[in-house]
Amino acid sequence: MATTATTQTSSGGVRVRVQQFGRMLSGMVMPNIGAFIAWGLITALFIPTGWFPNKDLATLVGPMIKFLLPLLIGFTGGQMINGKRGGVIGAIATMGVIVGSDIPMFLGAMIVGPLAGWILRLFDRAVEGKIKAGFEMLVNNFSLGIIGGALTLGAYKGIGPLVQGLTNILSNGVEVLVNHNLLPLVNIIIEPAKVLFLNNAINHGILSPIAAEESARIGKSILFMLESNPGPGLGILLAYWLVGKGSAKSSAPGAIIIHFLGGIHEIYFPYILMNPRLILAVIGGGVSGTFTFQLLGAGLTSSPSPGSIFAYIAMTPKGGYGPMFAGVVVATVVSFLIASILLKTSSKNNEEVVDLEEAAAKMRDMKAAGTAASPASATTANIITPNVTANVRNKADVNKIVFACDAGMGSSAMGASVLRKKLQNAGVHITVVNSAVSEIPADADIVVTQKTLTDRAIASNPKAEHISIDNFLKSPKYDELVERLK
User: Nearest to residue 24, comparing CAs of 305, 404, 406?
Assistant: First the structure.
């Protein structure tokens, strides 16, 4: 038993470390998804094979992918480590890998951005409190410039060529899979990894950089579709809706809208966790969908983030809608059929199925493990925080409510929308916004987060009132807050 427990702890620790590394990679890309979408739309519209070919406007495509996007990633990576100064030096160092290679340097930016921010942070800590009064600005500016210049030269001569060689190896590997019709097998790894919350790491950290380079060459890439295909998850939710039972069946229609139209794939993960055999269904859907994409020559011009069908439509190049829809439909049908059989088999055999709320709690714990900001927070990730922390506000003191989640895009946007509507229906006019948990505005009066993120939210803004919830779609804490503010 002790050996088993040790093995589980070890495997859990590995999963946590992989999730944290994946969070760092995706955290550099996700805040800049809007820029990727802008580049994708310009590419789809104005390249020679686009909807409205325009030689003049198409000149924007190259500089955007070679300079703008890597610089944004490098800046974000440095900022994650050392604030604005880290962002500036991250962008400076990224320029070295850009000029030192002939391909878009997304991977290079992901390396040198955080590295430059970390090196500058070491210097800042070393001289903290040792600079004479009046010389602070001089030291700060020159230290950033000198260290940034040195790192740029190192990136130009060393990291740029190294990353270009690595990218060529990865691209050649993908090309081998495509030429031998083996690309669909990648989904055998991708689909289980998604349920472990490695979806953003796989999509934005690994596939998108390679796909962007391919899209710049030929105008589209199937790699954008490997992880983001909404078909497998849609099949799972349809199966629960039509042949499932209990709370899972009743909640599935709403989850379908959030997943397929809203592009929030995390919504279907609990449905798999409460019946792990369903991982076979999403694998089947992913493999068949990718096979259809490859067979028909499908591809997108840029990353469809979030993975909504609307994002797929927006990123599909001219003449590519048939193959795109075919792959999504095939993935949905295959996933649905397998999931339906597995659900019916589970029911007939009276197998114990984990309750949806239990599965959702398990999902939150898994996600929290990967979002831990430090070893201490990783250790306390499963500690249940109070429902309401100190600094309780009166109605007159509340002007802004912030709903915070890990990235500030998915559950926080949905939770803020739900809470905003409840307040409006009650005649309460208070600003409700969403934010990343690490970037909660200083003027927030009340902060709402999932339990597993409350400790980080308090550290980000200790002066606000903090409310912890279990379910961001239908928490009773919403109604309690509305009643208090009426």
Answer: 406
